[in-house]
Amino acid sequence: MGNNPHVTLAQVAKAYGPLISLHLGTQLVIVGSSPAAATAILRTHDRELSGRKVPFALFLREPKLNRVPLAWTFKCNEEWKSFRTLMKSELFTSKKIDNQSIIREKKVHEMVEYLASKEGETVEIREVA
């Protein structure tokens, strides 16, 4: 897919539509490239498509990571799905995320100031409404 896989996937989506399934090696990957496809993936089929591939090599170094239900797991089992649903309904609600916007804005300003100091030039942030 080259150095810009997002560009390649956008071109593929123009030819084949907004919902694409690809095999990258032995891994099946579902790509949604439109708001409707993203809604279908994240809302309609959330529990079926919520699994992810964890590199086996990671477990050779840290086998205990498989016990962390949200971070790394070989399988998307019912315990993991229940924990993920709880996180989504209690921690990642729109209200809770909106309440942390000040923290995010502060971190963005810190990052921009850091980058500006490294580049030696002024970087401006425009407020987006």
What labels would you give this structure?
two-stranded antiparallel sheet, Cyt_P450, 2 strands, 6 helices, Cyt_P450_sf, mainly alpha
Give the strand order of the largest sheet, numbering strands 1, 2, ... along the chain. 1-2
Radius of gyration: 19 Å
SS element count, helices:
6
> Strand-and-helix sequence, N→C?
HEEHHHHH
Q: What helical percentage do the residues reach?
A: 40-55%
Give the amount of beta strand, in percent: 5-15%
Based on secondary structure, the structural category is mainly alpha
Choose one word for the global shape: extended
Main sheet summary: 2 strands, antiparallel
Distance between the termini: 35 Å
Identify low-pLDDT runs. Answer: none
In round numbers, the mean pLDDT is 76
Count the domains: 3
Number of beta-strand segments: 2
InterPro entries: Cyt_P450, Cyt_P450_sf
Protein name: Cytochrome P450
Organism: Xanthoceras sorbifolium
Pfam families: p450
